[in-house]
């Protein structure tokens, strides 16, 4: 399984409030693939994100749906560093840069 396949699956998981996928929002900090086990390290737009559990479940579901060879998908949620939208993300969201 290739990292690009996992990224393509992540691009199908949209933040329900911002309507932009988790990859484009730069919420994914790390992708590690070891013997078809996928480990994701990510954050949310805020520590109090009401859609956090939904996003984690959707990420696991989409990766397994799109990559039948994926054995286990784990998602570690971290808040260090806190999410700070890049200028590119701010532009996508219509926030003044």
Which CATH first-tier class would you pick? Alpha Beta
Number of helices: 3
Instruction: Please tell me the CATH architecture by its name.
Output: 2-Layer Sandwich
Overall 3D shape: globular
Quaternary status: single chain
Count of discrete structural domains: 1
Mean pLDDT, nearest integer? 95
Strand content: 15-25%
Report helical residue fraction: 25-40%
- By CATH, the topology is GMP Synthetase, Chain A, domain 3
**Structural class given helices, strands, pairing?**
alpha+beta
Rg, rounded, reads 13 Å
Number of E-state strands: 3
* H/E element sequence: HEEHEH
Separation of termini? Answer: 37 Å
Q: CATH H-level name... which superfamily?
A: Fe-S cluster assembly (FSCA)
Record the strand order, biggest sheet. Answer: 1-2-3
Low-confidence stretches: none
The main β sheet shows up as: 3 strands, mixed
Describe the structure.
The chain has a 3-stranded mixed beta sheet with strand order 1-2-3, with helices on one face. By secondary structure, the chain is of the alpha+beta class. The chain has helices at 3-10, 52-66, 87-93; strands spanning 28-34, 37-42, 73-77. The model has no long low-confidence stretch (mean pLDDT 95). The chain has a single domain (3-93), classed as Fe-S cluster assembly (FSCA) (GMP Synthetase, Chain A, domain 3, 2-Layer Sandwich), CATH 3.30.300.
Question: What's the gist of this structure?
Answer:
The chain is built from three helices and three strands, in the order H-E-E-H-E-H. It has a single domain, classed as 2-Layer Sandwich (GMP Synthetase, Chain A, domain 3), CATH 3.30.300.130. The protein has a three-stranded mixed beta sheet with strand order 1-2-3, with helices on one face.
